[in-house]
Amino acid sequence: MSISPLTASPPATVGPSEPVLDPQPPRPLSTRTLDDVLSVVGSALGSFAGTWVVYVQLLPLSGVLGFAICWYVAFLIMYASVNALTHPRPIVVSKLMTVVMTSAALLVGLSLATVIVYTAGKGLKALIHLNFFTRDMAGVGPTTALDQGGIAHAIVGSLIMLGIAVAVSLPFGLATAVFMTEVGGWFGKVVRTVVEAMTAVPDLLAGLFVYVTLIVGLGWERTGLAAAIAISVTMIPIVARSAEVALRVVPGGLREAGLALGASHWQTVRRVVLPTARPGLATALILAMARGVGETAPLLIVSGASTFMNANPTTGPMNSLPLFIYSAIRSPEPLTIERGFAAAVVLLAIVFVLFAVTRLLAFFSVKKFLKRHPTQEMATPGGLWTS
Amino acid sequence: MDVSVSPVDEPRTIHPGTPRVDRVFHGSVRAVALVVLVIFGAIGLFLGAKSISTFHLYGGRFLTESDWEPSLNRIGISSTLLGTMLVALTALIIAFPLALATALYISEYAPARLKPALVSLVDVMAAVPSIIYAAWGFFLLMPHMIGVSHWLHQYLGFIPLFRVDTDPNAAVLAQARYTGSMFIAGIVVSMMVLPIACAVMRGVFAQAPIGEREAAYALGGTRWGMIRTVVLPFGRGGIIGGTMLGLGRALGETVAVAIILSAAFDFKFRVLENGGSTISKLIAERFGDATTVQLAALLTAGFVLFVLTLIVNTIAAIFISRSRSGAATEA
Questions:
Q1: How far is CA B71 from CA B50, B54, B68, B209, B236, in A?
Q2: Rounded mean pLDDT of chain B?
Q3: Which DSSP string corresponds to B114-131?
Q4: Residue B14, number of CB atoms within 10 A of its CB
Q5: Which residues of A touch B287 (CB under 8 A)?
Q6: CA-CA distances (angstroms) from residue A5 to A2, A28, A32, A259?
Q7: Burial label, B51 (beta-carbon count in 10 A; 0-12, 13-18, 19+)
Q8: Looking at the complex, does the CB of residue A182 fall below 8 Å from at least one CB of chain B?
Q9: Please, which residues bridge with residue B210 across strands?
Q10: Which of A157, A296, A375, B77 pairs as cysteine with B255 (C-beta 3.0–4.6 A)?
Q11: Are B232 and B284 within 8 A, CB to CB?
């Protein structure tokens, strides 16, 4: 039930002499009827009861998963037959597909929820200890209680590696994106093709490449720096590609206006194009950071794992959150596994915070844009993960 | 009159000239792009170059031998390559219908107010690190999947794919035979494939022309009728492209597979059975104690994976770019 504001309060300017229009009740725009709601609820309850009788009481079957599948199938059949009583076939098919699509989306959402809830639940025991965030694992055995030791070394290691990776991949990625959109030419097409291909190449191979060239070839130690370089190699194509999307949506008219006013190409790019695309570029960078901080495969190969705090990326092994989780959950000790899950919660939290920042940036840039040009549609770079 | 006016206007030559600052600008971004190109070209060339020596040493046996036993000098990737494909295909078979349905739900069925939130939720799903899916799969999913694997074996075991090397009706369920299988690894990988495929499909569905949608409704079509005749044909390129992109991701997934799959080098199609191997798992686990020759062999395996993902992703890119050009509407 919604009452349109137009009919709720008649405008005050209407004088008494003018003929009062017959107030028409607002027509409901929603096509959902009571019938629709009841047929879904009724079929769900009916099929649940029927499945319970047959599956649990009559047949020698057991298992929650089997029950859920049988219930779902019974529900679809019942829902289809209930609708077939009153509707022609095309409408029954359409209604059935609506239910199938909705339930598939629910299943996907539910599995994502179990991932997050299960990780948080298993990590909770270790997370409530403050020392988990302030101590490292030096001298802490796999069976030591949770009120000793922590993952400060892995958090610091991850942040240092991420910092170096951003410092490397931002200039390279951004300059490549600027080259692809602003300079272009045949060489730009070649670069774009290669960058697109590289976003999809497994991260592991980047790690393998860095391992063989820097560690085997040049005789480097397995250090935080080598790990950061491996992460940068996986981040550069992501930054370049999504920054290119952000630069491409800058209206061409702005560039032409800059050039027509006598600015050089460099001035136009620096003063017009880059500032206009700033929110999009920030989103591109942060999404690449979210990807980079969770990168595990290259670290397996390139970075050594330490149990102690090492804030120097150039010497000695440096641990990181993904690597800590990887080794912790492979341990047979329940306490170590709990530490692994707690570290996973911290990693998830970092990723989600980075993600929330991109949403906020997008939100504010849209708001600012709408304030300036209330009637225009804004072209925002969408689908930065994949396009 | 001392000022002579030429009867015809001479076309003046224009020398726009590039300012020096722009030449520096163009040169430097071009140089950076060249460096990036060289780095990424180097990865491919490097892996390719290292492969030559392996093929010299092992010849065609490298592709046909199934075992990876460096101590016996028996090194080959046939079982590993098959395992890579099987895990990726399992992931795709699970992820494809769910991704398609979720993409359709978000673009066609979801209430308009919820849509942006759902789109970001799919992005969040893509942003969750693979190590977290791996932990979830190992501790939560695997114990629950033993029953499913056993059921499939018991009732569909006559299909070679679902065979397991144990008696399905034994009094005591041989649980260990059903853990760490390519099937379970595939399910976990499908969680990572799904958001990628879903995002591409949704993007293409959202571009289905509004005029044709309204035409379908105006002719009296139901919602599903409209989707079947307008959205799905229009989005065909996106469906194929998104799926291929997901396949590329599935082929290269390392951590989840390394944690869940138990190592085994049999050349087998039995996905429900414990054990298996994929290229990325092989590299992640064997590079540490590898000699120079073995390292070259691992790099060769990496090269095979590289070529495989490159082919799959190129096909995906072609399909996606075609679907976005709008050419599909004319057909």
A1: 21, 16, 9, 61, 50
A2: 84
A3: THHHHHHHHHHHHHS-HH
A4: 6
A5: 208, 211, 301
A6: 9, 14, 22, 48
A7: buried
A8: yes
A9: none
A10: A296
A11: no
Segment (H or E) for B75? strand B74-75
CA end-to-end span of chain A, whole Å?
A: 40
- Give the residue among B75, B91, B64, B73 at the shortest CA–CA distance from B261: B91
Contact B304, B291 (CB under 8 A): no
Q: Which of residues 294-353 of A touch B (CB under 8 A)?
A: 294-297, 300-301, 322, 325-326, 329-330, 337, 340-341, 344, 347-348, 351-352
Looking at CA atoms only, how far is residue B11 from chain A in angstroms? 22
Contact A202 B280 (CB under 8 A): yes
- pLDDT (tens digit per residue) in A148-194: 778 888 888 888 899 999 999 999 999 999 998 888 788 888 888 88
> Average pLDDT of A371-377?
57
Count of C-beta atoms within a 10 Å radius of residue B70: 15
| CATH architecture, domain B82-276 | Orthogonal Bundle (1.10)
Q: How many CB pairs under 8 A join A and B?
A: 276
Buried b (16+ CB within 10 A) or exposed e, A252-277: eeebeebeeeebbbbbbbeebbbebb
Alpha carbons A309 and A264: distance in angstroms, whole number: 50
ipTM more than 0.90? no
SS3 of B51, please?
helix
The Cα A211–Cα A226 span in angstroms is: 8
Q: Which residue ranges make up each domain of chain A?
A: 34-127, 152-372
Question: Of B245, B308, B317, B244, whose CA–CA distance to B280 is shortest?
Answer: B308
> For residues A126 and A122, what is the distance between their CA atoms, to the nearest angstrom?
9
Would you identify the CATH topology of the domain A152-372? MetI-like fold (1.10.3720)
**pLDDT tens for each residue of B100-144:** 999 999 999 998 888 888 988 888 888 899 999 999 999 988 888
A window 74-133, beta carbon within 8 A of B:
90-91, 93-94, 97-98, 100-102, 104-105, 107-109, 111-112, 114-116, 118-119, 122
DSSP state of B163: -
- The dihedral through the CA atoms of A53, A58, A63, A68 has a sign that is negative
pTM: 0.84
- Spatial distance between the Cα atoms of A103 and B102, rounded to a whole number of angstroms: 9
Question: Mutating which of B198, B210, B255 best tests the A interface, going by the most A Cβ atoms within 10 A?
Answer: B255
Helix axes B20-58, B292-324, angle to 10 degrees: 130
- Residue range A51-57: mean pLDDT, rounded: 82
Q: For residue B291, what are its two tokens?
A: 């000699």
Cβ-contact B275, B260 below 8 angstroms: no
What's the Cα-to-Cα distance from A7 to each of A10, A125, B5, rounded to whole Å?
Answer: 6, 57, 76
Chain B residues within an 8 Å CB radius of A344: 131-132, 135
